[in-house]
Design a protein that fits this description.
Chain lengths: 289, 332
Amino acid sequence: MDNFLLQLLNGLVTSMLLFIMAAGLSLIFGQMRVINLSHGAFYLVGGYMGLTAVKQWGAFWPALLLTPLLVGAMGWLAEQFLLRGRYGRERQLQQVLLTFGVALVLSDLAEWRWGAYTQTVPPPVFLATAVPLFGLQFPLYRLAIIAMGLLLALALALFLGRTRLGAILRAGVTHPHTVSGLGIDVERVFAATFAGGVALAALAGILGSPITTLYPGLDFEILILTIVVVVIGGLGSLRGAFVGALLIGLTDTFGKARLPEFSLFLIFAVMAVVLLVRPSGLFGVEEGH
Amino acid sequence: MRLPVTKILLPVLLLAALLLPLGARPYVLSLAIEVMAFAIFAMSLDLLLGYTGLPSFGHAAFFGLGAYTAAYLSSNHPLALGLTSNLLLLLPVVVLVTAVTALFVGFFALRTSGVYFLMITLAFAQMLFSVAIRWTAVTGGSDGLPGIPAPHITLGPLQWLINSRQAYYFLALAFFVLTYWLLRRLVNSPFGWTLRGIRENEARMQALGYATFRYKIAVFIIAGVFAGLGGMLLALHFRHASPENLYWTISGQVMIMVIIGGAGTLTGPILGALLVRLFPQIASSYLDRWETVEGVIFILFVLFAPRGIHGIYVYWCSRVQVFTWARKLLNT
């Protein structure tokens, strides 16, 4: 029973990290119809930048704020100079190649700067303790991640549901032509979306690095899991990203603990089953707009 | 627009390929075999990606399946059957296994499209990969299945044992040329044009009375079979079937080959396979950060040559006068 509770909590931690990643990826896809294959690389870069900030200045909280801003700026540049003018379904293959190229460059430069070995990242000092919870000791930092994930989900839901920009973003998913027809500058929305999306990836990176550690190759591991989450939930849906993240985070954690032989198999089996029952994901809109 | 590809370039290239073993070092021959196996694999994916508009991200499933099937049949590893290494028997079994698997996967995957198709094909491939790497008692786990003996072709009293690298090179070349020729006929047949129609507008093809699902299943099976043959060639060359052959990085790499070479053509994927397989081999001995350079090359392709290497070639053919003259000369 204790084990079950521990795995459940760990599963929730994984779920929250996946949710933050998936929210960014889903946001980008929902608006621009681009699968951002460099999303995992931005996680890695965000994590490494946070590591440097913590090691050099011992400052976790400023890093938590600054890193997503910095990475968001990188995303903005990437959108301006690379993706702009290359949208649309007939250019899908070019988008794949482009974002894959960006991922290669980023991860290779990260390896150059931060080394080809596994870097462990200490959690912030005042969260580096364990707290008693239902009769077991659970690291406080992990609880903080669950709390931050939930808070972020709430904040994003409010942002999308209650603000003007949120309304534009929601409309962009289902009725992109109407949005541009209403005189909204879609290009600026795209730039902001891409910057915001990769900033979320960097946030996940800096939050997750004490748990996942950082090493070359992590970027694509995380990317694949994130895409699985987004596809299960339905591309472009925040609620879908949340439910998908819970499903995959828990499947992954319980799978690794209970059936280590088949954990990878389980994740993809879950995705295959979901897609067979609902070809557009749990909360997705039909493709082809 | 007729390009001088078939009339000048192709015979020259074929002659060069036939003469290569005379001068090349064994290492170069080995690379050439590898590139040809991947070129077959890439051409098969282009049937889906370029001609039919089906972005499969799990094509390595069939590549690896071909490799493992050949290994099971021929290897003298304790886990394998070790029945035969006669190509005339290996070939039909590999074709059958990959075709049946493609029918099964395609039946489910083709109900989706676009990104969802991308992901469900990836899911099937990753499930196969996880079986290959985890179910050690049957699949050999991360070691894969080594111990494949040299293949031979035996028909009654006639036997050709392919135990030298030169001999295997010619075998691979024969497979490669035959695949190119068959697929060329396929994409220029009414079937091939129907596939292009599905890519451009599936709803319209349905309205015209085409049972598009059947066409998609058919091309999915054909692509799976040729990918399997590419995998078989690679496994017989390295004498080893490896779980890496099934991994998604291989699916991604072959996708890059098709896009960089030029999707929707057959020469494109061949050139893409050449570039993507050779670049790391050459660049890694000169550059430390060759992956950065590779990424930059990908980006530059998108920015300046969105139709890939084949597109650059077509562009120059339409520009350079010499080619125009040659074309006129040949067409008269």
